[in-house]
């Protein structure tokens, strides 16, 4: 295989052992395998010399190749279980590509179940990680819809308690906004992906996404919600 010479590659982790939604990565979502939406936007963005899929599964590998991605290695089983964190999975991919003499400086992990991802967001992440001299990662985030400092917990006794009772009487508009990981993509340097264990540190920078374009897909309910949102946001793409 001819090694890449571009400074950026996309890596899509797509294991075969999804339990809550069997065959999640290749299940049809508006007429296409779910992972097709991520592969196509990565190819269309013009940011990457290659789009690589990291998988342990033959069906996923064949689907990825048909969609225009590359599968130059197979992911080991110890990184294809329910508990394998994302950073070591991408770190393994980076190491395998370097063994094959692929030349790149940045990698972008794109989740296989991210139908709301846009080329514009990927470009924003690419520009940000290049503009910050100390940046290790760039992560899309979105704001919580309600102040987390007013959040409640159900105690073992069944009653309600506040996580931060000191803010019971604080007005919502006076509390600092909080954000969570949007779960779509992660830009990172190849050094960060091979040496860090997680994304969140002082060298991680955010790309802020609107809440309506963020939908994690882990359960059948999540899948149904994604379909409803997609019909509203992308009616042009609905088959």
Description:
- This protein is α/β, with parallel strands linked by helices and 239 residues long.
- The chain has helices at 34-45, 58-66, 86-99, 119-131, 190-195, 220-233, and strands at residues 8-13, 28-29, 32-33, 51-54, 106-110, 137-143, 152-154, 160-162, 179-181, 185-189, 204-208.
- The protein has 6 helices and 11 strands.
- The strands form 3 sheets. Strands 1, 4, 5, 6, 9, 10 and 11 form a 7-stranded mixed β-sheet that branches. The protein has a two-stranded antiparallel sheet with strand order 2-3. It has a two-stranded antiparallel sheet with strand order 7-8.
- The model is unreliable at 1-5 (pLDDT under 50).
Helix and strand layout, with pairings?
Layout (H helix, E strand, L loop, with lengths): L7 E6 L14 E2 L2 E2 H12 L5 E4 L3 H9 L19 H14 L6 E5 L8 H13 L5 E7 L8 E3 L5 E3 L16 E3 L3 E5 H6 L8 E5 L11 H14 L6
Parallel strand pairs: 1-4, 1-5, 6-11
Antiparallel strand pairs: 2-3, 5-10, 6-9, 6-10, 7-8
